[in-house]
Amino acid sequence: MADSGVAALHRSILEWYSVHARPLPWRDPSCSPWGVLLSEVMAQQTPLARVEPAWREWIDRWPTPADLAAASPADVVRAWGRLGYPRRALRLREAAIAIVDRHGGDVPRDQGELKALPGIGDYTAAAVAAFAFGDRSVVVDTNVRRVEARVVTGVEHAAPSLTRAEVELAAALVPEDDKDAATWNVAVMELGALVCTARAPRCAECPVRERCAWNVGGRPAYDGPPRRGQKWHGTDRQVRGIIVQTLRDSLDPVARADLASGRDAAQVDRCLAGLIEDGLVEPVGAERFSLPGHDQDDAVEEVAG
DNA sequence: GATTCGTGGGT
DNA sequence: TACCCAAGAAT
């Protein structure tokens, strides 16, 4: 694409974002880097509409990394609620501890140091650098991949997994100026989330519909490799979810038989072992289980009282 | 590089 | 109803 085309793309999408950006709390200029980091981890594979209420609870309860570092694993897993992938809650706590230990309690600005934190990968490190510190970085999430696949490459869907070419394309499209770069990154993501959606894209509302290769080309159907659907019913993931939900909802340790009643015993055992290995479940005595680091004072008080 | 890892709303 | 898919990371 010619440079003039890239400049026009920048103007169109940045202008669209200035009008249509959602007023998410972590986008407020007063939001701390910690608040931004928290939002990015919560948003991993989770729709923002479900993230926002949880984010407000967390930032109110644990306003700094030091505050979260002092929480118990059981507390953070309960507070995580039903956001999904609860290992993220544990990693967030571990990241907070690392931030206190290695960075004096302040979220680091360097992407390499960010990536060294538990639960922070390429995407999240780039996102925190851009959205918390205003640095120029290359943010490539599922939205960016889809928007650029359509607008530039002319295909409906990006490849099944992130390719080198996609990263290079994204890098080539990020504006040179730091401030424009940070806004560009979030603007493309927002366009993908609100207009250039995976299914039923709203092309009529798109600011770049006239320069989108996929749209101009008649929106040809996807003809790449078959995309694997996510299994759910009967999987270990489902049983793990049931077990953790049971423990989240229980103030007291739970017997093995009550963790996921009605499920195959061998599967429950396998999932339980995995959850213990992951640090999401902790054995209590011989045959009972609880969330990790669960404070037993309540149970003791019940007995004592 | 392919798999695994939750949950719920939209189509 | 069944399926798709969401600001990915770790292994």
UniProtKB/TrEMBL annotation:
Family: Belongs to the Nth/MutY family.
Keywords for the protein's UniProt record, in alphabetical order: 4Fe-4S, DNA damage, DNA repair, Glycosidase, Hydrolase, Iron, Iron-sulfur, Metal-binding
Positions of the HhH-GPD domain: 42-194
Any one GO biological process: base-excision repair
Full protein name: Adenine DNA glycosylase
Superkingdom: Bacteria
EC number of the protein: 3.2.2.31
